[in-house]
Amino acid sequence: FWRLVHTLDTSCIHRPFRWSSQRDMMAPTVSSHRVDNSVCVGMPRIRTYAVSRPGLASVTHTRRRMGCSATVGSVASRRGAFEARVMHSNAVPFAQRSSKSKAATRMCGIIGVFKHDGSANVEIYEGLLMLQHRGQDSAGMVTTDGYKFHEHKANGLVKDVFDNQELLNTLDGSVGMGHVRYPTAGTASASEAQPFFVNSPLGIYLIHNGNLTNTDELREMLNASTSFFNRHLRTGSDSEVLLNILADEIHRAHQKCLLDRGCDPNMKKMDMVFEAGEKTMMLLEGAYSCISLVNGVGMVAFRDPHGIRPLVLGRRSGPKGDEWCVSSEDCAFGPIGFERVRDVLPGEMVVITEDGELVSKQVHAPKELSPCVFEYIYLSRPDSILNDISVYDFQLGLGTRLAKKIKETGWDIDLVCPVPDGSRPAAIQISAEMGLPYREGLVKNRYVGRTFIMPNQAMREMSVRRKLNAMPAVFEGKNVLLVDDSIVRGTTMNQIVKMVRNAGAAKVYLASASPPVRNPNVYGVDMPSRKEFVANGLTEEEICKVLGADGLIYQTV
Question: For position 445, what pLDDT does the model report?
């Protein structure tokens, strides 16, 4: 069964480091990878590597490495083990970043649809509804009929941004894509809702899920004389930076084709996009899963070489041939009639041409597949399959491991209760493993957003009080084991413990399906400061006191 072999609690964050030796993962069926427990050691902050292509001399690229982070897991195949492994970022420590870097994309949901006939707007709308859990701050959509782009974006939920059929009808075209955004402080402006657009070269729209960690360096490059047209950026979003880097590299490929190779750029548009994809991935650091509409080329999807954020390819049969969908999660496929084909591979770029042909190229050698473990613990829906691993089965596995630790405590427990919704699979499994009653004692208000992705602490605390209600009929006189998928800030859990006590519980024990979170995740989860973590600088016993519980146990890996 899937094994967790490394903890999220690591002390090597933001130190100079040496990358561990890693084997390339060329397909999702590669067997499990060995974990190197010494990946974060003091070394010079320079990394140099070469990329070669047929017909061109090898290109050597050197980058300065500024730090490392540790909340990312490594996934092996469906047949092998699951290994939650530390993935080291190339991030500038948050304390060293300028204010221009603060408008990060964070967790988002993206979807792109290609049809041969008819408007794609309904499929995109329905897909965005299925991805709404990934972002509730804003929504956007762009479609194309092959001649014009049609765009609409605004702050709000999907159903509110696209609130009438007349509006959807203006988004005409058989190809399009949509985005939902995670709310974070400093990015509330509707101007930073996606998609983003540049008119040159070709005309490109882009949507992005993830977070770049070298945004300042890229901004300086785009504003320097080495950039075509000295590109001006209108927002603080790293997604706009990513789009302009891609556009800049397409322009460079265009110039090479025209001046150096003597070819006709109009006949080589797809080749230019693939070449630009290779160069772009050499420049970008951090997490990025992207979908783009490139005029004259088609719909383009690509994923960073570590596969930190998910991206899945779907297909359905139509009267004129296969139709395609690319999405953050495959849970979006079912309601719109698509079937899962596979994950977009790390370092892969997929182009769906204007005729519906799928063309794929590995534009960057993949690193060891290292998805963010929070995708499996909290962010993704349980009915999704990411990197050939069922999110639901993974969460059941967390419950099995946690039950073994709970048995060793000797706690006198009367019932197991989940903190809805993400902890249900783990709680169900703990109940089964320990032979204890499973009870739903916390009633959730379905019309309140997820507290973890509220933009500030005051809103989170207010939201908890109106989000959950404890039932005395379940808790009166009972020793209760509350199970949560994770305890990050402690905001929710502290108040839930008080609710359960007020509902008559004799004792309240806590179990977290994930280990203590002590270090920031710079790859697109809203945890920018260690000071916000309840586990920061505290032992488990001290955390338990802060949360007001009678006992606390964390997942170990």
Answer: 86
Task: Note the Cα 239 to chain centre separation in Å.
Answer: 14
Catalytic positions, written as ranges: 108
Q: What φ, ψ does residue 172 adopt, rounded to 5°?
A: -85, 150
Measured in degrees and rounded to the nearest 5, phi and psi for residue 160 equal: -90, -35
**Exposed / middle / buried, residue 135 (Cβ in 10 Å: 0-12, 13-18, 19+):** buried
Side-chain half-sphere CA neighbours of 517 within 13 A: 27
CA dist., res. 111 & res. 115, Å (int): 13
Q: Half-sphere exposure of 380 toward its Cβ, with a 13 Å CA cutoff?
A: 31
**No. of H helices and E strands in the chain?**
13, 25
Query: Sheet holding 507-512: strands in order across?
Result: 415-418, 479-484, 507-512, 551-554
Q: How far apart are CA 294 and CA 144, in angstroms?
A: 10
d(CA 14, CA 90): 9
Query: pLDDT value at position 183?
Result: 58
- CA dihedral angle for residue 487, residue 422, residue 137, residue 523, rounded to 10 degrees: 60
So what's the pLDDT on residue 458? 64
pLDDT score at 454: 54
- Residue 144, helix vs strand vs coil: strand
Tokens of 315: 């297909």
- 529: DSSP letter: -
Number of neighbours of residue 224 by Cβ within 10 angstroms: 10
**Nearest Cα to Cα of residue 503 among 470, 548, 478, 465:** 470
Q: φ and ψ at 245, to 5 degrees?
A: -65, -45
- Single out the residue of 111, 117, 162, 448 nearest to residue 289, CA to CA: 111
Q: What is the pLDDT of residue 557?
A: 75
Gyration radius of the chain's alpha carbons: 24
Residue 186's pLDDT is 40
Q: Is residue 18 a contact partner of residue 44, using CB atoms and an 8 Å limit?
A: no
- Model's pTM, two decimal places? 0.80
Task: Kindly give, in sequence order, each residue whose CB lies less than 8 Å from that of residue 401, ignoring residues fewer than 6 positions away.
Answer: 4, 555, 556
Average pLDDT per block of 10 residues along the chain, 557 residues long: 33 28 31 28 28 33 32 34 33 34 63 97 98 95 96 96 95 98 64 94 96 94 79 91 96 91 91 98 97 98 97 96 98 97 98 97 94 92 97 97 96 97 96 98 78 56 77 98 94 92 97 92 73 91 97 93
Inter-residue contact 384 to 331 (CB < 8 Å)? yes
